[in-house]
TrEMBL record:
<protein>
    <submittedName>
        <fullName>Integrase</fullName>
    </submittedName>
</protein>
<dbReference type="GO" id="GO:0003677">
    <property type="term" value="F:DNA binding"/>
</dbReference>
<keyword id="KW-0233">DNA recombination</keyword>
<dbReference type="GO" id="GO:0006310">
    <property type="term" value="P:DNA recombination"/>
</dbReference>
<dbReference type="InterPro" id="IPR013762">
    <property type="entry name" value="Integrase-like_cat_sf"/>
</dbReference>
<dbReference type="InterPro" id="IPR011010">
    <property type="entry name" value="DNA_brk_join_enz"/>
</dbReference>
<dbReference type="GO" id="GO:0015074">
    <property type="term" value="P:DNA integration"/>
</dbReference>
Amino acid sequence: MAPPLTRILRRHLETFGTGPGGRVFRGVRGGELATVTYRRVWDRARLAALSDAEYASPLAKRPYDLRHACVSTWLNGGVPATQVAEWVGRSVEVLLRVYAKCIEGQDEAAKRCIEQALRDD
């Protein structure tokens, strides 16, 4: 069975279809949603989901911050940069230029991989 949010999304698509360019959400006249609409909804969601201190912080201040957190998590989880770059539609060069400072704590895992590779030979 699909996760709850997947079911909600599928139900929305069955009811409303997609808008121009395959967009999931569209404005009242059928076109693209205004940026201010996204901002207002995002702000309300943050207010509902976060503590007062978290809401006052830069945590998930913009929807784009979720992409940044996701990419950083993948890279820190050891997903190869080439794979992450493909998933997010960036070149490896751009990906690493933007996210290299977010990658941390992989030294020991990398050393273990090297040791294992040398033992396998």
